[in-house]
Amino acid sequence: MSPQIETLPLKETLDVVIDLEKQLEQSGWTICKPTEDPTYSDDPKIIEKLLSGKSPNVYWRAGDKYMLTYDTRRFSGDP
Fold it and tell me: Distance between CA 20 and CA 51 in Å, rounded?
């Protein structure tokens, strides 16, 4: 998958990522470390991490065969 060419506002980014997480969960994927690395949400703690540039990682697993990790990044100057 190619990187995003244009940046998305935070709300749109969360909508895309939360939808992806729902699709993963519905397909049988499980989150690896829900306490340490929770899924994205519109929770104020997650939003604060994103706004402060901490870019939380999320890890998913499909059985013992596949693993997926992702994060988001905030470019300086983005609202």
Answer: 20
pLDDT computed for residue 60 by the predictor: 94
Q: H helices of 1-79, where?
A: 10-26, 44-51
Q: Output the six-digit token pair for 1.
A: 């998958």
∠ CA(11), CA(32), CA(58), 5° rounding? 25
Sheet containing 66-70, strands listed edge to edge, beginning at the edge strand earlier in sequence: 30-31, 58-62, 66-70
Q: Over the stretch 42-79, which tens digit does the pLDDT of each residue have?
A: 888 888 888 888 878 899 999 999 999 988 877 765 55
Burial 11-36 (b: 16+ CB within 10 A, else e): eebbeebeebbeebeeeebebeeeee
Q: Give the end-to-end CA distance of the chain in Å, rounded to a whole number.
A: 25
pTM of the predicted model, to two decimals? 0.79
74 in Cβ contact with 51 (< 8 Å): yes
